[in-house]
Design goal:
The chain is an alpha+beta fold and 487 residues long. 27% of the residues lie in helices and 28% in strands. The strands form seven sheets. Strands 8-7-6-24 form a four-stranded antiparallel beta sheet. Strands 12-13-14-15 form a four-stranded antiparallel beta sheet, with no helix packed on it. The longest helix has 21 residues. The chain is globular, with a radius of gyration of 25 Å. Bound molecules: zinc ion.
Amino acid sequence: MIKLALLLLISTSLFSQMTMGQSAEKNYFNKLDNCIRTSDLKNISGHFTQFSQLVRTTKSELCESDLGEDTLQIARSVLAMQRIDVEPIERDEADDFTRRAIQEKDWWVYFKQRASKFSVPKNCRPGVVAYVIGGPFSDGTIYLCRPYFEMDVPGQIEVLMHEVRHFDGHRHVTCSRGAAKGRSGACDETIVSKGSYAISVQAGVELSFNKQLTSAQRAVSEAGAIFLMVNRFNKVPKVKAQTNVLLSNSLGEIWKGETENGALTDLSLVGELDQPSRIYSNGSALTVFPLNLEGDAYRVSNDLTGRISAIGSFASKYNSESIPERAKYKSFSYSGTGLIAKGKEIISTCNPDSELNAVVFTPEKISSLITFETSPFNISTSVLGESGSIYVVDCDSSKGQITIKKLKTKMPSFITDSFTVDGIQYALTDTGILAYLDFTLSPSEPKLIPVFEKQPGVVWVSAATVSTFDIFEREKELELANVLAGL
Ligand SMILES: [Zn+2]
């Protein structure tokens, strides 16, 4: 009897070694692999019982044809979450990016304790990625909407972590600032309260450092964390950041200017696009609009390595238009609630349902959009009129209506881009010259002082500020040092 038991033991361990050796571990972060291991799904089907029917099969792998697209995607993101190995970030009291909303090192344990079921409802509100019902009294069901299935796996993991946080009783409030200003249930009051968006930021930061992901996936996670940090908290978080100037030229090159006390100190080539384009930063990512109107707009991570599939409502609108319509676009602003100048209209998301909303700009003909005062958290977008007058555009979120306030200051109307760095106002002219604006002699007629004079035959086509956040720079420097040390 003892002998038999021993034999059984040996044979099972041999068997498990054999199956282990048959194929390498699956990479569930790879969305292109449309199959999952039956044994892996079986492993979680005791807890997530909706999978238990599916694993009653002799197949060693289950693919999209066996599971259907939605179930495959849900199972894959959950299996990826189970495998995540998080390296905690060192806490810096002066930087909320290092704040950890949940202390559990193992996300999987935290997640599993709260979630029990996934459901794909037929009717989701537009723009909703996922939701839960009932907070702490819920049965642990996470409802997943179409945008969830369009996300890459790391983004799906962030969403799942965000949603289970609601089971701890955390709820959202109306945004009083940021890209969703005025929208109800789209912000948290503060990052300090460790609500769902604090978890989203934490997930984005920790995923951006996770070596299990590709460098493009990591860049997209970083962009997501920055976007949420800048836009999803009513009380402005504390972050360590640097403001730089980003320029694109008629060769399609992208140059970055370092600044010190607002002054440009150094300019270096940081990338190249396949064609000359205007680029805009929303703080977390760059949206690229090719000068050739036939080229569609797209979005890339700040370091230009990761293509971001969610291109935003401005680029989506632009891409849906005919060439003659595209020609009417004058400029875009991704600061604050965001604004488009198109023909005689300004287009914003300022209305209760946060769809794009166009209104005719009545005071005068629009020349371009400019911004004042840049901190990543407080930038106001203005219309520069053809008379040189400046009109600050804001959103009255209680009414869901645009407000317009004319300033005393004027600017030459041939300016196509203008922004502030540490109190210094920059401008790009329609002839491609980058300049400082000196208002000391006259507030209505600033003097243009050119900086970094253009190379012969090459002109700047766009200029904007871009923020670099210390936490992500620190990690890149560390990685570079490791590479140099041969580690
Ligand atoms: Zn939420």
